[in-house]
Amino acid sequence: MSNQASYRQFCKTLPDLPVFLQPWYLDAAQQTEIWDAALLWHEDEVVAALPYFFKKKWIFRSIVLPPFVKYLGPVLHPDHRTLSNQHQLYAGLIRQLPAFDSFKLDMHPEFTNWLPFRWAGFRQTTRYTYRLNIADLEQTLDGIRYNNRREIRKADQFFSLRHDLSLSEFYRINKMSFDRQQIKIPYSITQLERHDQALNDHQARELFFALDAQEQIYAVAYLIWDRQRAYFHLAGDDPRFRNKHAGIWLIWKCIEYARNTLQLTEFDFEGSMIPSIEAVRRRFGARQTPYFRLWKYNSRLYRFLDRWEP
What we know:
The protein is 36% helix and 28% strand. By secondary structure, it is an alpha+beta fold. The protein folds into two domains: 3-128 and 290-306, Gcn5-related N-acetyltransferase (GNAT) (Aminopeptidase); 135-264, 3-Layer(aba) Sandwich (Aminopeptidase), CATH 3.40.630.30. A hairpin with a 5-residue loop joins strand 8 and strand 9. Helix 2 packs antiparallel against helix 8.
């Protein structure tokens, strides 16, 4: 059995596996990058895994994160998660990785022990996502800054919510947010369609559209989830109407959906480190949650050519 097939079997034993590490999620994300997994076994049973995407460009071999994969990182069997086990298993997983010139991964927030990677020559910087307890929606609403609560209440009178518009309409509005910042959107509509199909097939996503009385779209949001939490995955708004606060309203609608429909109690904003976006997350009362970005270069030439900043 291949490592990929063994990883698929291993994941069936992990009820707390983040959606980003699900095999079907990785299948949909691979394009020029091919995914596989480093594995460790104990008595014919996988006890640790590290999925990764491997990309070849020119003479260089890199372990990377493709679009839509917010996090990766090691996953351990529930019976092997003590600190001493982590040291041993993480070191073993590192040894199982293929030879690479460059390694760059954002680890899921549940990964908190990067020491074995440091000892193996990896470097780290801390990044942040924002997570919100939504077990009590009334309490969650009270925790939102007053100005944002007022914007949400005003928007309730102005917007209607739709879930049934097309993915192409979502992409059109989503792309506007990148265009406004003069940034190239990092995925094509074809990539998004493949991603969306996998999530839809596994009943792990919902689209949100904010429309006015004339059915003009002001903002969009894309919510995904696993058994632990919902994730505010993608979003966008029409720059002509940003003063209407449709984006703020849609965040609240996603939170309501996550609690009332999905029966989840935690909401993950998926970052961001950008000051203007971070401020919105904070104003919703979300708590700062660290995660690690790890990297390593085994090729001085690639390091020189890459000019990448963590």
